[in-house]
Amino acid sequence: MRRPLRIALLASSRYAVRQPFAGGMESFVYEFARALTAEGHHVTLFAAPGSGTDLPCEVLPVHTFEMSEESRREPLTPEWIVHETHAYLSVMLDLGDRLRDAFDIVHNHSLHYLPLAMARSLSTPMLTTLHTPPLPWLEQAVALPQGVASDFVAVSAFTARQWDPINGPVSVIPNGIDLDAWEPGPGGDYAVWSGRLVPEKGTILAIEAARRAGLPLRIAGPVGDRKYFDQYIAPELDDTVSYCGHLRQDELNDLVGGAAVALVTPTWEEPFGLVTAEAMASGTPVAAFARGGIPEILDAGSGRLAAPDDVDALAGAALEAAELPRAAVRAKAEADCNHAVMVQRYLQHYDDMLYRERRQVPA
């Protein structure tokens, strides 16, 4: 039987881990923390203020400070960057000093460079999940000449290949979702799009494709870019295209499960595509642009892929996907997007890291 572990999860210092989720990362960390706790492990979460609602774990405070008036007048550095850097610097110093022996594993899900750059100062082994492509600040931390004292796992084979020239081969643990929370729905006569409303998610392309397919479209998610929403999305809203707001998980499950097809339209190389797995778990077939890690999730029994940015192809894919048997779509999610399997793979990776750590300690 595996012994209980003391696990510190590092998440975003800007976006709270609570419902309704700001994005896929916050949803992932929320469910992961709950699952680890259900397995009997002691989880402590570092995330933005307001995190922890309904979470059976402790939350590390985010240290803040008041900038001087002189600092605020400096025009080149946004305040949020300064506050974020201060927050991660503070927590890493705490983990290296005040909390030195408090944890068995530090699991880094942040997109900030400091946890990687300062990992060498910890006595506790660190695992970093690569949730994104090689962003410049992350890449420069990994490329430090001294090396980085962290193991790495990528969320898809595609993302692992992107990082390979920078830090070599890494293990792949695909994201999973809680299949008990995402129940299959009955389907319906509309298309659905969910996610953050930002340019790289391609919401406007979903609107165009739904119209060409003759399908009403319902949109849900947080407005991550107000200018993009006001300029491109709001003018398109009418009796066939509706915005349903920023929904809690159960509300989103109902919306997605009631759709004939889900449209997934990234204009960037999506590292995994959590909304694809959520739709499949809801029994809703998916029509998606073939970008990033999405083709690793979707097969001919659960959806259709279209060439990136090809709206006509996506419209055709949506009509084809809508005819697929919903039970087969759900079965694909159960086989390949199972949260329980993902959690066990992470726990095994923790065990492997701790075994290596023990072997390196002199007798």
Automatic annotation (TrEMBL):
<dbReference type="Pfam" id="PF00534">
    <property type="entry name" value="Glycos_transf_1"/>
</dbReference>
<dbReference type="InterPro" id="IPR028098">
    <property type="entry name" value="Glyco_trans_4-like_N"/>
</dbReference>
<dbReference type="InterPro" id="IPR050194">
    <property type="entry name" value="Glycosyltransferase_grp1"/>
</dbReference>
<dbReference type="GO" id="GO:0016757">
    <property type="term" value="F:glycosyltransferase activity"/>
</dbReference>
<dbReference type="InterPro" id="IPR001296">
    <property type="entry name" value="Glyco_trans_1"/>
</dbReference>
<dbReference type="GO" id="GO:1903509">
    <property type="term" value="P:liposaccharide metabolic process"/>
</dbReference>
<keyword id="KW-0328">Glycosyltransferase</keyword>
<dbReference type="GO" id="GO:0008610">
    <property type="term" value="P:lipid biosynthetic process"/>
</dbReference>
<feature type="domain" description="Glycosyl transferase family 1">
    <location>
        <begin position="190"/>
        <end position="332"/>
    </location>
</feature>
<dbReference type="Pfam" id="PF13439">
    <property type="entry name" value="Glyco_transf_4"/>
</dbReference>
<keyword id="KW-0808">Transferase</keyword>
<protein>
    <submittedName>
        <fullName>Glycosyl transferase family 1</fullName>
    </submittedName>
</protein>
<dbReference type="GO" id="GO:1901137">
    <property type="term" value="P:carbohydrate derivative biosynthetic process"/>
</dbReference>
<feature type="domain" description="Glycosyltransferase subfamily 4-like N-terminal">
    <location>
        <begin position="23"/>
        <end position="180"/>
    </location>
</feature>
